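Q: Give me the 3D complex with coenzyme A.
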Amino acid sequence: MIRAATAADFERLQEIEVLAGAAFRDIGMPEIADDDPPTIEELAESVAGGLAWVAEYQGRVVGYLQAEVVGGCAHVAQVSIDPIVRGRGLGRALVDHLEGWAIDHNLEALTLTTFRDVPWNAPYYERIGFRQVEPTPALQAVVDREAELGLNPATRVCMRREVVVPPR
Ligand SMILES: CC(C)(COP(=O)(O)OP(=O)(O)OC[C@H]1O[C@@H](n2cnc3c(N)ncnc32)[C@H](O)[C@@H]1OP(=O)(O)O)[C@@H](O)C(=O)NCCC(=O)NCCS
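A: Here is the predicted complex, encoded as structure tokens.
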């Protein structure tokens, strides 16, 4: 089940972020694994904007997605799933939910930036319908902001998935 995140979820979302990020340690990217999870303030801002959703599995919150509007598109700022329930389609369900939100808000596409060569990043997003694109000015600004935070822009890629409006 996908639902809007609330303040009661915040500590669990921080925990999920740490658990999900740990995989980066296994591929020699400990600095990404050690990245701080989103702060309570950042999560509260997403919730206030109606831009954070959680996935529940067997009654427990196991994943979340934070979005923002970037260049007229619904931008996936973060999506993380607790490793114990990976591969059950919950990441895809969160992204599909964002697509529904984008349709409701007349946005034409979903976008994101991610690591090109990390298997559960760009290859994963390709699997769920994104394709690599040249950065628009708005996406370039995201990549530039990430570079200021220490992410090497040469390792990053911008991706886009058109929204598909269901027939009435
Ligand atoms: C990336 C992540 C969100 C995926 O969530 P998930 O619920 O395990 O993924 P899903 O079950 O929805 O998988 C959807 C599809 O992607 C495929 N997939 C899953 N992991 C994959 C991987 N590592 N590489 C390639 N494809 C993958 C699945 O096989 C599935 O395809 P199918 O339905 O055609 O068989 C999760 O692994 C995660 O939290 N990773 C760590 C945090 C992170 O890096 N987030 C993304 C960057 S912000």
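A quick observation: The chain has seven helices and seven strands.
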